[in-house]
Amino acid sequence: MKRDTPHDGHCHAQFTTTRWSIVLSCGDSGSDDAEAQAALAELCKIYWRPVFAFICRQGHSVPDAQDLTQDFFARILKSRLLQSADRNRGRFRSLLLKALQRFLQDDVDKRSARKRGGDLRFVSWDDWMAEAPSHLSIPKQESDNWPPERIFDVRWAATVVERALRRLGDECEKRGRRRIFDVLSDCLAAERQDVSYATFARILGLEETAVKNLIHRLRDRYRSLLREEVAQTVGGANQIDDELRYLCAALAASE
User: Fold this and answer.
1) How many domains, the chain?
2) Domain range for 66
3) What is the DSSP letter of 82?
4) For a Cys staple, 65 with which of 40, 51, 60, 90, CB 3.0–4.6 Å?
5) What is the pTM of this model?
6) Residue 40 in contact with residue 23, Cβ under 8 Å?
7) Following DSSP, what letter does each residue of 103-132 receive, concatenated?
8) Residue 136 CB neighbours (<10 A)
């Protein structure tokens, strides 16, 4: 699947190749395109963590939340609920949360009358856990008072950031620069005054000027990858910046 670069974001023809736009385009045409189904499945795998966290926050036990998460995504993939979404409403995150709230309001008997997930096998829970381990620690004392919607947003933002960082780490590893990434990755989102270039230079055995250049290039690439990740989940290029601001606000609220 062709991906947009940050500079391609304003070209509608190229933007329609992102995952959510493919799903929306399929819904507009009424077709059941295999590429759209694959794109939707990938989006669902990205969003399992915020959905699971939301369900847990509603008071469900971990085992029940696991079952409900699987069942929810199975229904999303089997039905045309999201494919028929109004593309003017745009964001996959928002539409998914509304669908999840409706799902949890359904009669419990309808969910328990059949095997979780119906006859659709999505992916095992263990595979989900291995797919995107979270490095974000939410302070429990504070989060206990958060509404489920805030938990959902924070987990979504963390997942998007971690996917961008994982891609950047993989790129560095392919270029033989994994150690550079491991050492410098924690400062990619830090303010300049909070970065000790001398310390990093000593750790890496480089000149401070070289470290500054490396951090600058890593930050540029990280922002590009983060933008690409966000672009996959909105319905138009004009929504990317707003969604990025929303992501930053969600993470700032978790600190």
Assistant:
1) 1
2) 6-253
3) T
4) 60
5) 0.74
6) yes
7) HHHS-HHHHHTS-TTTT-----HHHHHHH-
8) 14
